[in-house]
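Consider the tokenized backbone below.
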């Protein structure tokens, strides 16, 4: 086995669901607010006009909501920074959606589960019909041989939402990347994309 395949293939949560992203977004918003205030002060000072009037127009509009937001945002950023530092010290298993390594496959999420290669009969991507006629892509680790699969995909084996599909501004896991990761670590395990399957 090459050095390339000894490293686990890991898919982590990205997008607005992570503390780091929310912290970066909050910092950007706060920077814009500070620059806006400084811009107003500088422009009004150059013009020799009142600084108070435009500042009140900006910060006290909508019942003072911008001012309340500006005062509260630094506190939220401080709390976010502390949380981000704590996350660095702790193992970030909550953000791991999928791991493929030499021992097997670990599904993350609300109900994490590790399945060894000896139990895996296949890995597939399916789209299951959920509430309100919405097709949801899922990753299924098949524990049943192909010729004995029950009709319901829910009985094929443990599954999880397809990594990245429910994250705001996140990246959806490409099917080819999963197929390659499995082939490098367990070439005997077939990976298939079965599309829409009605249970």
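A designed sequence for it:
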């Amino acid at each position: 086995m090459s050095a390339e395949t000894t490293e686990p293939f890991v898919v982590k949560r990205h997008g607005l669901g992570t503390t780091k992203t929310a912290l970066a977004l909050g910092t950007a918003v706060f920077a814009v607010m500070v620059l806006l205030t400084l811009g107003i002060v500088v422009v009004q000072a150059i013009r020799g006009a009142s600084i108070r009037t435009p500042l009140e127009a900006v910060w006290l509009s909508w019942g003072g909501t911008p001012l309340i937001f500006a005062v509260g945002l630094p506190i939220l950023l401080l709390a976010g920074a502390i949380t981000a530092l704590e996350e660095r010290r702790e193992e970030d298993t909550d953000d791991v959606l999928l791991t493929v390594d030499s021992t097997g496959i670990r599904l993350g999420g609300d109900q994490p589960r590790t399945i060894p290669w000896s139990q895996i009969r296949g890995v597939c991507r399916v789209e299951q019909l959920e509430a309100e006629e919405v097709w949801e892509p899922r990753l299924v680790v098949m524990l049943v041989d192909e010729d004995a699969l029950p009709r319901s995909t829910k009985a094929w084996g443990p599954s999880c939402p397809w990594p990245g599909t429910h994250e705001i501004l996140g990246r959806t896991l490409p099917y080819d990347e999963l197929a390659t990761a499995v082939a490098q670590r367990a070439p005997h395990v077939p990976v298939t994309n079965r599309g829409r399957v009605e249970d």
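The longest strand covers residues 122-130.
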